[in-house]
């Protein structure tokens, strides 16, 4: 049984949210063909039909929009079956002494036992079974065994497991995520997905300066993030000609600003073509030269589409902690050079001037460069945990 959390406050949009969450849960569980998902008004029921509950719960933990969920056992309508099931729940959940109570609800009034009697008798049975583990506390128990006696059976549950929180992916519209191979942008992508944004990844690569493995790394990172979204489109944009031209014609202090302005323009153009509402990136204020407010202003001036930065106010250590939790960190630190690292000047301007950036760009064929980059775009759909890196290749060979 799945509880919706923040959804329940969404008034008349609630139905859309619940439908979307139902779709996302079905997507996350698509390979468990026997599982059935019923997304009702107040709760969602995921009927296992014999499928391993641990495997299903592992997937549910990655679906945004779920606040908590509980494994539920359904048994025949007799007291013996209820005792067996309650015993199983306690065995699974309890390893150290705890307080508990039994709380029964009865919608089937023909059942032979009343709620009070069920509470007492089941409580007594469990105390007998687990004398060293359980003590009754009816006011503030650590564990509540809930029993619901309904027409079609008796349902039992006790454990409450924390879900991923957030909002169902797809309820907040589509955004274009500028995904590098670094630590920050995958974390920013995770946070955007968590607030319900459906993302398409935009990745710039510069062969031969960057390797196939660098591209594969960005794709594999997308596979990690696709766990939270079912699948994610990956858009690779060739960036070599732009970087070479900028390097040749623009003064060194402005190389980075001008390159970033091109990246943003390209992401915006892709957003316009693909109905994206905003651009997301992994910038965190003050982290490096391009991430000062002056720099953000000079770069962002190329568009009036919102540029959203989910990790803007996070410290590096906080970002790393999330990267570890979502299992992107170890991939992000693999030493494959990204297109920006290769062309980063030793001392980029930390306070670039917008007028100068515009002036230097006047020396370039901006439209032609953009058009050719966009012509070379390749798009593919990446699924959860899809692998791309060539495991046999020695990662350090890249550094030689
Ligand atoms: N090759 C790329 N393709 C797509 N987006 C990029 C690329 N390089 C940088 N970006 C975007 O620009 C942001 C800032 O990049 P930069 O390299 O300055 O910072 P960073 O803090 O190292 O970020 P990250 O850890 O995400 O690489 C990235 O978070 C990402 O959103």
TrEMBL record:
The reply on keyword ATP-binding is yes
Ranges for domain THUMP come to 54-160
Give the matching SUPFAM superfamilies.
Adenine nucleotide alpha hydrolases-like, THUMP domain-like
- Entry keywords, A to Z: ATP-binding, Cytoplasm, Nucleotide-binding, RNA-binding, Thiamine biosynthesis, Transferase, tRNA-binding
The entry's localization annotation reads: Cytoplasm
Q: What is its main location?
A: cytoplasm
Q: What pathway does the UniProt record associate with this protein? A: Cofactor biosynthesis; thiamine diphosphate biosynthesis
Stored Pfam families: ThiI, ThiI_fer, THUMP
Q: Which reaction does it catalyse?
A: [ThiS sulfur-carrier protein]-C-terminal Gly-Gly-AMP + S-sulfanyl-L-cysteinyl-[cysteine desulfurase] + AH2 = [ThiS sulfur-carrier protein]-C-terminal-Gly-aminoethanethioate + L-cysteinyl-[cysteine desulfurase] + A + AMP + 2 H(+); [ThiI sulfur-carrier protein]-S-sulfanyl-L-cysteine + a uridine in tRNA + 2 reduced [2Fe-2S]-[ferredoxin] + ATP + H(+) = [ThiI sulfur-carrier protein]-L-cysteine + a 4-thiouridine in tRNA + 2 oxidized [2Fe-2S]-[ferredoxin] + AMP + diphosphate
Stored CDD domains: PPase_ThiI, THUMP_ThiI
Q: Which residues bind ATP?
A: 178-179, 203-204, 260, 282, 291
Q: Identify the EC number(s).
A: 2.8.1.4
| Matches recorded under SMART domains | THUMP
Its top-level enzyme class, in one word, is: transferase
What the protein does?
Catalyzes the ATP-dependent transfer of a sulfur to tRNA to produce 4-thiouridine in position 8 of tRNAs, which functions as a near-UV photosensor. Also catalyzes the transfer of sulfur to the sulfur carrier protein ThiS, forming ThiS-thiocarboxylate. This is a step in the synthesis of thiazole, in the thiamine biosynthesis pathway. The sulfur is donated as persulfide by IscS.
Q: What family classification does the UniProt entry report for this protein?
A: Belongs to the ThiI family.
Q: Which HAMAP family match?
A: ThiI
Matching entries from NCBIfam families are given as: tRNA uracil 4-sulfurtransferase ThiI
What is the name of the protein in this document? Probable tRNA sulfurtransferase
State the organism named in the record: Limosilactobacillus alvi
Q: Which gene encodes it?
A: thiI
């Amino acid at each position: 049984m799945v509880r919706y959390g923040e959804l329940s406050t969404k008034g008349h949009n609630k139905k859309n949210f619940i439908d979307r969450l139902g779709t996302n849960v079905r997507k996350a569980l698509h390979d468990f063909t026997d599982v059935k998902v019923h997304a009702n008004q107040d709760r969602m029921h995921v009927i296992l039909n014999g499928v391993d509950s641990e495997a299903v719960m592992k997937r549910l933990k990655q679906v945004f929009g779920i606040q908590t969920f509980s494994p539920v056992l359904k048994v025949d309508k007799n007291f013996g079956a209820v005792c067996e099931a309650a015993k199983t729940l306690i065995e699974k959940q309890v390893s150290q002494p705890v307080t508990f109570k039994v709380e029964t609800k009865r919608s089937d009034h023909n059942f032979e036992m009343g709620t009070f009697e069920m509470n007492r008798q089941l409580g007594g049975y469990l105390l007998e079974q687990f004398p060293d583990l359980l003590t009754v506390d009816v006011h503030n128990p650590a564990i509540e065994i809930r029993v619901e006696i309904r027409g079609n059976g008796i349902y039992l549950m006790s454990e409450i497991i924390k879900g991923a929180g957030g909002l169902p992916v797809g309820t907040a519209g589509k955004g274009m995520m500028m995904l590098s191979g670094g630590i920050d942008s995958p974390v920013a992508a995770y946070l955007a997905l968590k607030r319900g944004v459906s993302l398409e990844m935009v990745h710039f690569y510069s062969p031969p300066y960057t390797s196939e493995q660098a591209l594969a790394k960005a794709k594999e990172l997308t596979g990690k993030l696709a766990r939270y979204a079912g699948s994610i489109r990956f858009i690779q944009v060739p960036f070599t000609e732009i970087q070479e031209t900028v390097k040749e014609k623009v003064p060194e202090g402005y190389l980075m600003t001008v390159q970033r302005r091109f990246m943003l323009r390209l992401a915006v153009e892709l957003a316009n073509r693909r109905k994206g509402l905003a651009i997301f990136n992994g910038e965190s204020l003050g982290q490096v030269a391009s991430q000062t407010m002056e720099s953000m202003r000079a770069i962002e001036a190329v568009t009036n589409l919102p540029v959203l930065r989910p990790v803007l106010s996070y410290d590096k250590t906080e970002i790393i902690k999330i990267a570890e939790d979502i299992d992107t960190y170890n991939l992000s630190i693999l030493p494959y050079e990204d297109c920006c690292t290769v062309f980063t000047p030793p001392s980029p301007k930390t306070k670039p001037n917008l007028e100068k950036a515009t002036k230097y760009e006047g020396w370039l064929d901006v439209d032609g460069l953009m058009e050719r980059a966009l012509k070379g775009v390749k798009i593919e759909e990446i699924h959860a945990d899809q692998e791309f890196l060539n495991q046999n290749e020695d990662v350090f060979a890249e550094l030689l």
